[in-house]
Amino acid sequence: MSTPDQPAPEPGGFKPPAKDPWKSFRGVCSGMLILEAIVVLLAIPAVAKLGDGISGGAVAYILVLAGLMILGCGVQGRSWAIGFDLALQVAMIAGWLVHPVVGALGLLFAAVWVYMLYLRRDIQERIEQGLLPGQRD
């Protein structure tokens, strides 16, 4: 039985965590998108010096991609945020057509996002098993 100041146990028999574990995960996702946007923007001068340089269309692609990453930081609380984040990674890998360096950065960050998905699944499993510190008595 639960009291007004104490949450009721969930169907699995474990009480919900006292602090929202997803809040910190959303913060990590936002931080990763900002870091990725910075790296992508810093790639413009590097790519411009490699080979034949970089076209105006390629710069526009990179700027739009970085802008979407920065805007993506604000939607991490939405149910579709992870899908949006992964779509940005696909767009980064597709940037290989703009310049191979952009695609290589896309592969690197895609690997990081795969690890983030692993962490997301791990958090969900721990919640379901009642293993988070806020769920223990």
What would you say this structure looks like, in words?
- By secondary structure, this protein is mainly α.
- The chain has one domain (21-130).
- It has helices at 21-49, 56-72, 81-94, 100-129.
- Helix 1 runs antiparallel to helix 2, helix 2 (56-72) runs antiparallel to helix 3 (81-94) and helix 3 runs antiparallel to helix 4 (100-129).
- The longest helix has 30 residues, at 100-129.
- It is elongated and about 60 Å long.
Summarize model confidence as the mean pLDDT: 85
List the helices and strands in order: HHHH
Question: End-to-end span in angstroms?
Answer: 15 Å
Percentage of residues in DSSP E strands: under 5%
Tally of separate domains: 1
Silhouette: elongated
How many beta strands in the DSSP annotation? Answer: 0
* SS-derived structural category: mainly alpha
Helix content percent band: 55-70%
Provide the gyration radius in Å.
20 Å
List the helices and strands and how they pair.
Elements: H1 21-49, H2 56-72, H3 81-94, H4 100-129
Q: Summarize this, please?
A:
The protein has helices spanning about 20-50, 55-70, 80-95, 100-130. The protein is mostly helical and about 140 residues long. Pfam families: DUF4233.
What labels describe this entry?
about 140 residues, 4 helices, mainly alpha
